[in-house]
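Late entry, written up from scratch paper. The run itself happened at the end of the previous shift, but nothing got recorded in the book at the time, so transcribing now.
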Amino acid sequence: MTTARDIMTPDATCVRWNETVLDAAKKMTELGVGALPICGPDEKLKGMLTDRDIVVKVLGEGKDPATCKAGDLAQDEIITVGADEDVSQILHTMSEHKVRRLPVIDGHVLVGIVAQADVARALPDPQVGDLLESLSSN
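Output as recorded:
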């Protein structure tokens, strides 16, 4: 059985709840990633911040990324997958919620991220194709 732990990118770097969106954008640039998990002071996952969020919800709305906090962009519902979840559950969750990146948690601790690219590297072509089709459809 292939699990989230088997295919995830480990050691995901968080942007802290109270860090600015500008700080988050700099972290994304340094790490070469398009999304960062948002972690609160209790170390619990509060959401995901994407480069698209920065463009649409901050720059597009005329907000200042140097003063806007990452926590202000955290979603009400956080979609995650458990570290020991089977890959079929991961695919189902990504498809159902139309997400390209899933934070992987062990208990309440963030241990990694499963991204669309991780799935593509780890799974047979038909499963990857089904996921891509699902994520691309309205």
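The chain has a mean pLDDT of 87.
(Scratch paper discarded after transcription.)
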